[in-house]
Request: fold
Amino acid sequence: MSIKELKSELLKIAKVRSAISLLQWDLSTYMPPKGASWRAEVLGELSEYAFFLFTSERMGNLIEKAQEEAKSELELALVRLTRKDYEKYRKIPLRLFVELQKEKAIAEKLWEEARKDNNFLILKDSLKKIVKMVIDIAEHIGYEDNRYDALLDEYEPGFKTSYLKEICDYMKRALIPLLERVESSDLEKEGKGSLKKGSFPIDKQRELIQRVISAFGFDLYAGRLDTSPHPFTEVVGLNDVRITTRYDEADPFQALLAAMHECGHALYDLNIPKEFFGLPIGDGASAGMHEGQARFWENIVGRSLPFLTFLKPILDSTFPSLSEMSVVDIWKKLNTVRRSLIRVSSDEITYNLHIIVRFELEEAMINERLSIEDLPYAWDEKMNEYLGIRPDNHRNGVLQDIHWASGHFGYFPSYMLGNIYAGQIYWKLKENLPDLDKMVSEGNFKAILEWFKENIYSKGKFFEPLEMIKAVTRENLSPSYLVRYLEEKFLRNPIKR
Amino acid sequence: MSIKELKSELLKIAKVRSAISLLQWDLSTYMPPKGASWRAEVLGELSEYAFFLFTSERMGNLIEKAQEEAKSELELALVRLTRKDYEKYRKIPLRLFVELQKEKAIAEKLWEEARKDNNFLILKDSLKKIVKMVIDIAEHIGYEDNRYDALLDEYEPGFKTSYLKEICDYMKRALIPLLERVESSDLEKEGKGSLKKGSFPIDKQRELIQRVISAFGFDLYAGRLDTSPHPFTEVVGLNDVRITTRYDEADPFQALLAAMHECGHALYDLNIPKEFFGLPIGDGASAGMHEGQARFWENIVGRSLPFLTFLKPILDSTFPSLSEMSVVDIWKKLNTVRRSLIRVSSDEITYNLHIIVRFELEEAMINERLSIEDLPYAWDEKMNEYLGIRPDNHRNGVLQDIHWASGHFGYFPSYMLGNIYAGQIYWKLKENLPDLDKMVSEGNFKAILEWFKENIYSKGKFFEPLEMIKAVTRENLSPSYLVRYLEEKFLRNPIKR
Reply:
């Protein structure tokens, strides 16, 4: 009975959050521009309400009562996860939560302006306030060693900053030399496939994407594909998970890659057991595990030779002008390794270095070792240190991502951890499905999806990410698997496979 | 200070309602079908929350305190309107409100099924429950003479059933003979314009509609035009009013007429003073006054010879196959008077008779003089009595409208009252803008919109509809103006004008 009451209260909050999700999805897709300022107020109101409900005395009592009654593993997990979040969020004063929401709305607008004007100063003061509030929140939540731990735990439960630093050191030691080897390899010297000129109408691109994501297993009756300036996935409700992409009429691969990425997120969300929906257990294991799924479908599948073999005839019939490009030409185009300034368009090797730059900077900001004034300079320095290039301006440097303006400190590492999880899981998947490449080249993704359902999606948030890696691969987390995947992929000539 | 507090609480509720509006808009436009059942729960949760907030003790106290402080006419109106709704809704038990919401969701689904299967029995039991609950609500609200008054007041504040019956009697006495005269007139004998065959791509139709509604004054940066099975207007937020239409590839006029109708609603909503938004005064005077605006732009403007003169070159350039039709041909096509079974596609004369059928039936149901069992038979009888035709099945008869399944008893009269208001206001408008026809034929709608802004839109809900008619036309409401408009329109040959 008490468990039922707790679930019912959690579902009530989930309904409010579902409205918030739709309001956010609409904000980025269809909302008429003049509706923006009222929309911000509606979002603020409902976010405050959801926060209030979740941190109320009532919730505390429901958890206590449910605790006494919980018996099954699932019930125990439900109470444990709810209590963890409850105790954390209850430490954050409602006032502080509301103020941060408001400042975020302001900072996001200023970020857009600053980016357009290529001027960090426009954002500086608001970002300062955000960082101050985020630090304040971290102090309220509490931590043992590093203030950043309090934030990191939101996205990667069970992770410590010290461990993350070790992983970053490993990655730098492995990837910086790998980057040099790839640059001097035969493969790179052969030159890259270039896109045949031509216009690729958006309608056709959308059709192509819908075929691909349907083949992956995305149910278009339980989701949508729309357009937005920044691609994203939104769980609007039970059986309602929406993804977006952005189109470039001169290059059909950009929208496809972004859609495959978001499709990975959506497949995870859509295949968590329905009975977990709306409960703390009805989520992915972590932000990184989620990113891992996105990066798996985008990169490990989407940029692979077998996948492009499957894609080729569809591509040719959709865009006859592309038929002159061979599968290998396309592979090269999608797998160019290059020291570039922009994270979202970077290759699978340098992407991780982009993340390390961000993680090290935000960890320093949160621990007040780096001032907001010095941030742009520190950014440029780190880019030069790890990637060997220096941004020519703020837009291509410190202003390229919205995350900090949105108050999302602690999220960036999840992108890299996602790659690392996906890399390690990939080898296990290959072991279990020896015909993996053949399946992919034939467009048969069913067994892959089933494997993920059984091993990952069906578990919801039952495991923390490190536990899940162990449960799935029978080994502790190791970034070596990702590095091995990257070495095999980028140091072996695809033509000679 | 107290006024400010009252406003702030009302705006809080408006924010919740704004989320509900978006959830409803999305439900009818973009929601993936499998998301439906969760969506119903989200809507139920937020509706209950909004109802709870509005009927709480806290709201009662805020009204009391604001009452003492209110000085300006506007402040007094704010308190008066809030108190009226508060006292009404507070009489309705929350339990009853929630149950009705749930039963509506069920009945609407059954209505769809019943309509598809052409079988009233599928809906019958659920409709019985709905009527019982609506009667229960009317009893809680209370009334003097007629139980139906308690429902009618929701849509047409200040109206009594007895007065509405007088209006219906007048309308029947005027329109049934007028219908016969039109049928035997030269005009009708000349035959009707018929649509040149051809396919009218939806994209082109949408473009055409956007040009027309923009010309009317609809700001596409503060609104949207989308597609849905049943056209509607939704105020999603401040500066965010969305309309929908439905397309028929074989006939471009259906979507245009529906869009002009919804545009009329939207122009009203978008031009109520921004500072009234979210407050009880920030609404139209009544559902009928709102319909009146919709019917004005759809019919009095949209089906007029001057408008079609303006439209003709745009139409020809969009759809060259239509260029063989003259303006008069098109006028005839859009103004065919015919005894037909379906309300939404009926002409300007018989439309009112369709409404009277519905009003008389629902008034009898609410007062328990007509059982749900007898409803289909009573429907057919009344159709035969007023329109001289008898439905061949339930789908074209009693099952054609969703209103009763949605619990909207008391709304139907607003459609006819809308026509009557629009008719009376039209003559005043013509008096004030003697060049009206010329303006319309030149596509210059600015002065019309300005006139409506000044005389109607800017007043929000400050006046009840009968007061507003008096304020605008300096006369009491009289359906004779509508009848005169219809006589002039349908008994005069457009060619001889």
The longest helix of chain A spans residues 2-29. Chain A has a mean pLDDT of 95.
